[in-house]
Amino acid sequence: MISAFEATILGFVLNRPSSRYEIMKAFQDTSFYWSGSPGAVYAAIARLQKRGLLQEGTSSRTKTYEVTTAGRYSLQEFLKVPIPAAKLLLDPVLLRIKLRGLDHLSVAERIHFYQAQIEEIDQAKRIINTKRHLNPQSKISQQLADLALDQINLERELIDGLLSEALMNQS
Q1: Which of 19, 165, 168, 171 has the maximum number of C-beta atoms within 10 A of its C-beta?
Q2: Comparing 139 with 48, which gets the higher pLDDT?
Q3: Three-class SS state of 75
């Protein structure tokens, strides 16, 4: 399985064969989640190439990278798996990363992902509600629980809208 960071690189390169510098700049210019430090990006590119998920391109003077068939498959498999409720609460960025890449899946695969992720979101809401009742005297704990619920509800609304749109496109 690939990491979210590696999946993001594959997603960038799948959209357009890119040089190491272009990939690093894409992180710095478009990502809300990582700064794209050259060392981290370049090391990940080397790992992906070593694993056969990226290959050197042949179309330009500058060394570029292209996603291999195995790389496309790995990215798609990564994208299909919903974020479990407990992990969603700890790192909501993972869901946002996956949502940005779902265009690499078929409409049917996206629908399946949305439906499965909604179940995980609903489970995350139950976790929050259970934990918020453990310390009702703490005002800050209650406010943090409310904040977490607001965030998870917004994510649910977003996915509900994406699911509706996908279902309409499936027809």
Answers
A1: 19
A2: 48
A3: helix
What CA–CA distance (Å, rounded) separates 138 from 16? 50
Please give the C-alpha separations between residue 76 and each of 5, 71, 87, in angstroms, as whole numbers. 14, 9, 20
Strand, coil or helix: 23: helix
* Cβ–Cβ under 8 Å, residues 94 and 83: yes
Q: Are residues 73 and 86 in the same domain?
A: no
pLDDT value for 33: 62
- Please tell me the pTM assigned to this model: 0.88
* Percentage, residues of the chain above pLDDT 70: 95
Residue that terminates a domain, selected from 78, 102, 127? 78
* Domain termination residue (choose one: 14, 48, 78): 78
- Quick: pLDDT tens for 89-112: 998 889 998 999 999 999 999 999
Alpha-carbon separation of residue 54 from 67, 99, 147 (angstroms): 5, 22, 40
In this structure, are 93 and 165 located in the same domain? yes
> What range does the domain containing 25 cover?
4-78
